[in-house]
Amino acid sequence: MAPAHAPHAAAAECDAIIDRRRARFLATLVRAGAVLIVVAASFSYVGLFDPRRLAEGVPSIVKLVTEGLPPDFTNARSWLKPLMDTFAMSIAGTALAVGLSFPLALLAARATTPHPVVYQLARAVLNGLRSVPELIMGILFVAAVGFGALPGVLALGLHSVGMVGKFFAEAIEHITPEPVEAVRASGASRPQVIMHGILPQVLPQMADVTIYRWEYNFRASTVMGMVGAGGIGFELMGSLRIMEYREVSALLLVILVMVTFVDSLGSVLRKHFK
């Protein structure tokens, strides 16, 4: 027979579980309330809750939408090369980012960095590159090397190093140490340890991050064109300047189709690398 106090102990344990769940629920409500208060305060600060400004802006938005309909695809053939330039710009920028990110990630990961000072310096470089928006980099590189796809590639690549390198470094820091120790024990050199002990563990995560960044870079490359870095964004900016809103809406639809294509291709590539 079970002890007489067993039902009381089970009831007390159930009450304790209920109290813990209630406390977690209340803590979640408090956090959610705090987040909502901060968001509401931010919206109020930037004037988003100004009814008069919103009411005055609605007719202008409706006018812009009506002026952009129906989309005008008359010059669609001339958009093919800029579109391919944008596509190539995103690929080249991502390739540049990956090529620079991997060695920086090795220096910025505690498992592979040669010295704590080198670790801090590498992290500082990644933070610095990540903190400068690609739009600002694009303007600077256009001023430095002139118009065309090259400044767009440099801006996308260097800005992406900050984020891609950080993700690569985090993946390296979370590797399983046993395979690395086994490769070291066999007398392998440092490059061999990286090649055979570290890279096989992080390659799937790196491929995933690379594909995601390529998808982002394609969308960002359209903005690069608007500051003179070529591509379909340059065509979009030109149509906006002469107020050809029907052509603008057509260009936006073309960009939407290409973004959807790139996202679908990225999904296929991610399944292949899993």
Could you explain the architecture of this structure?
This protein is mostly helical and 274 residues long. Helix content is 81%, strand content 0%. It is built from 10 helices and no strands. The protein has helices at 6-45, 51-67, 80-108, 116-131, 134-145, 149-173, 177-185, 190-225, 232-241, 245-273. α3 runs antiparallel to α8 and α3 (80-108) crosses α9. The longest helix is centred in the N-terminal third of the chain and has 40 residues, at 6-45. It is extended and about 70 Å long. The termini are far apart.
User: Residue share in helices?
Assistant: over 70%
Q: Tally of extended strands?
A: 0
Question: So what's the overall shape?
Answer: extended
Helix and strand succession? HHHHHHHHHH
First-residue to last-residue Cα separation = 54 Å
Unreliable spans are none
Topology:
Blueprint: H1 6-45, H2 51-67, H3 80-108, H4 116-131, H5 134-145, H6 149-173, H7 177-185, H8 190-225, H9 232-241, H10 245-273
Helix pairs in contact: 3-4, 3-6, 3-8, 3-9, 4-6, 5-6, 6-8, 7-8, 8-9, 8-10, 9-10
Q: Which features characterize this protein?
A:
274 residues, mainly alpha, extended
Put the structure in a nutshell.
This protein has 10 helices and no strands. It is an all-alpha fold.
